[in-house]
Amino acid sequence: MPGTGYCGMNGLLERLDRTGRALENASLVILLGALIALAATQIVMRNVFDSGLAWADELLRILVLWVAMLGAVAASRDRHHITIDILSRVLPGRLRLAAEALVDLFTCAIAALLAWHSARFVAETYAYGDRIIGNLPAWAFQAILPVAFGLIAWRYLVLSLARIRDLAVSAPGPE
Amino acid sequence: MILVGLALVLLALLGAPLFAVIGASALWGFHRSGIDLSVVAIEVFGIAETPILLAIPLFTFAGYLLSESGAPKRLVRVTGALLGWMPGGLAIVSLAACAFFTAFTGASGVTIIALGALLYPALNQAGYPERFNLGLVTSAGSLGLLFAPSLPLILYGVIAEVPVDQLFLAGVFPGLVMLVMLSGYSVWINRHNRVPLSRFSWGEVAAALREAIWELPLPFVVLGGIYSGYFAVSEAAAVTALYVLVVDVLVLREIPLRELPRIMREAMVLVGGIFIILGLSLASTSYMIDAEVPQKLLAAIGDYVAGPQSFLLLLLVFLLILGCFLDIFSALVLVVPLILPIGLQYGIHPVHLGIVFLATMQLGYLTPPVGLNLFITSYRFKRPIVDVYLATLPFLLILLVSVLLITFWPALSLALLGAE
Question: What ipTM was reported for this prediction?
């Protein structure tokens, strides 16, 4: 089965993988839970007490971004991102592996670029000292972007390494 | 420039995630215009500046919960009690139940898994031809797309900056047209085999309704809440999510607490997959608007397209081809910003354009080679994909006729808005 164990570093990477998945799940559950609870509280406040929490709407929108970015990280883990993928279906075995490795490396590179430029965006906000949700530093909320894109890049690096290893292991020759 | 474009298309066809392809094209576009690339991150952060998007994770989560609970079974029973007396009863029941369910689950293939698994064996048992059943379950899987509060409707509202509640109203008649036409076909194809599911009985209706007592308020809360002005769309989503969570986990206890993290994760994987494409296409779109791509497109087609009718026809052909390759969410975020300004030039109402867009892309679920429903059916019911292609073909053709109707009869979409 492709994707189990990576080039001799099995133990460490697998443990990282397990911890990562647990962290990911925990944060998704907490954030989505907070999203539902806060949105519901807002409705009660508005309809019963005729007032809303001023900062809550802003926080809700930030939570949506966080949940979405973490969801995207989770999607990377299982290759659940939306793709078109019609050519690779028809490619023969080894060629397909090579194509998948190429595609994973490309995705890793783009995600890494996005992480880098998001990090610059966050650094800029930090330098300007922008504040949101009352008086909290905006950069802390924006930091999800470089973190998530970075994690996605890491996932696709691991996936591509597994592909390359499969490619090296599978005997060259007719399939 | 052309080489980079071709390389990106090739990578996409080889299976590169669309967010990476769109991200790459946005980065490349801004790089060529000499704009600082951190603008891409600013655009993605735009997700946090669009209040209505809150509705999407909440409705998605509610839909996933519903599909894991006993709700599909109860829904089939209620629909059966209400519609089962008709000739071709079970087929019509299947279509109606799927449409209703898809409206809530957002046409992500969940319907086929949750409802198709109940309906397909039941249809076979009731003596309907197997190939018909296969096609029915496949095409019913995305039937409720035009009914509120479906995800694609909300997403179109976000992108086209059209009030979502107007879209909800606009989808009603076009959605019904699709439903009625497929029902008519089902009755006609089974005209020699008029199996009513059951005789109509008030007792059964009452029993089915009683069983579904917890789910019954949902449509009223969502639609009633929105149209009475009591809830905003995202508030209705919050109420739905909380309500379904409490009912399924605490009251009916159909979903054990330990299953909750998995369901949350699955729902948010779908949301994340859509939103990351949305975020990056906000960036690529703002580049394309800067580069005046819509104006150039308009100029390019201006010589061939004389008026609104020929524009709509061209649009239809384009969307049908597009639907063969792109899923509805990616198509929405990528294509709507480009065609919307052109449509406005030709005097197409943005709400009508949205309904046409979604109705046509709905066919994309059923068209080879990448129609999502085809794969889900093939996988779920262990049938070769080619069988599923062929079984779905008649349904696809009927839906195509309904799409033509929806496209060239704008009043169908606009009547409830009181516009024009």
Answer: 0.89
